[in-house]
Design goal:
The structure is a single chain. Helices cover 47% and strands 19% of the residues. It has 301 residues and is α/β, with parallel strands linked by helices. It folds into 2 domains: 128 residues, Response regulator (Rossmann fold, 3-Layer(aba) Sandwich); 156 residues, 2-Layer Sandwich (Alpha-Beta Plaits). The longest helix is centred in the middle third of the chain and has 24 residues. The model has no long low-confidence stretch (mean pLDDT 95). Bound molecules: magnesium ion. Magnesium ion (MG) binds next to loops.
Length: 301
């Protein structure tokens, strides 16, 4: 059904792992773990959409595994289905009390397991859709400010841990108010959509993010990108917007729609985002505008 979704199957018995892997093969990508420790590692690393968890396992049982999963921010949200030979109502109740979304007893019926997994994967899919919708700007269909705020927090921490540079660019459409006044808001919206699409085409690596910050302002977040590369990319972006050749009859900055961009590159430290980081980029944007617009200023933190 949905090959992009994955299920982690945890069972200490090889035969059970094989059976479950086989019966789920058409539904999703299957990841296997043979004990609790391996399950925690794989869940943390691979973020499966669903976990099928055996209860009776040596060393660490399923109850201990689900509690450990809930201690980890990276795995807390992953739904767990217990699969257990313990079929008393009290066992099932205990499993559900611990936070499992479902409880399947062994010996299981393959078609029932398959259908239950399918239903849970569908809910996961719907939940992700809703979560993502809440983070998309409805006009331009790129990320919104909320998504950007979350990404900044997590990339800040990630770059701080690995002592890697983090680059942030803020860009603004030059004389956009004049554009709207002259050509109308519908045309202005169209320009914002075209700029958003062009900006998105520059986001090539997994951590790269472009978001609409508000009005005619966009932000570009580039983890693990040093100041030289960020500045080079920013200049490419600026040139590519000018090259769209969208007529701007009332702009003192040129014949076409242009942007100004300010940026900052720094190696983050500490757990929380330093507000100065954004202010530096914003200051650079202000300077780019003051110097005559349609240009990029970049700072090194
Ligand atoms: Mg077992």
């Amino acid at each position: 059904m949905n090959r992009t979704q994955s299920v982690l199957v945890v069972d200490d018995e090889k035969q059970n792992r094989g059976l479950l892997a086989e019966l789920l093969a058409d539904e999703c990508r299957v990841i296997l773990a043979k004990n609790g420790q391996q399950a925690l590692e794989r869940a943390h690393e691979l973020s499966p959409d669903l976990i099928l968890l055996d209860v009776m396992m040596p060393e660490m049982n399923g109850y201990q595994v689900i509690q450990a999963l809930q201690q980890d921010d990276a795995t807390r949200q992953i739904p767990v289905i217990f699969i257990s030979a313990l079929d008393a109502p009290a066992d099932e109740e205990r499993g559900l009390d611990l936070g499992a979304v479902d409880y399947i007893t062994k010996p299981f019926h393959p078609s029932i397991v398959r259908k239950r997994v399918r239903n849970h994967l569908l809910s996961v899919h719907h939940r992700h859709l809703l979560e993502n919708l809440a983070k998309i700007d409805s006009l331009t269909e790129i990320a919104n400010r909320r998504r950007y705020d979350e990404a900044l927090e997590s990339e800040w921490r990630r770059c701080a841990r690995s002592a890697s540079p983090l680059s942030l660019g803020i860009l603004d459409v030059d004389h956009f108010k004049r554009y709207n006044d002259h050509l109308g808001h519908a045309e202005g919206d169209q320009v914002l959509r075209q700029i958003a699409r062009k900006l998105s085409s520059f986001m090539r690596r997994p951590g790269d993010l472009v978001a609409r910050y508000g009005g005619e302002e966009f932000v570009v977040l580039l983890p693990n990108v040093d100041a030289d590369s960020a500045l080079a990319l920013a200049n490419e972006i600026r040139a590519s917007i000018e090259a769209l050749a969208l007529p701007h009859p009332s702009s003192p900055a040129g014949r076409y729609v242009t942007i100004s961009m300010g940026g900052i590159t720094a190696v983050p430290s500490g757990g929380d985002v330093d507000p100065q980081f954004f202010q530096e980029a914003d200051g650079a944007l202000y300077a780019a505008k003051a110097e005559g617009r349609n240009r990029v200023f970049w700072r090194r933190g």
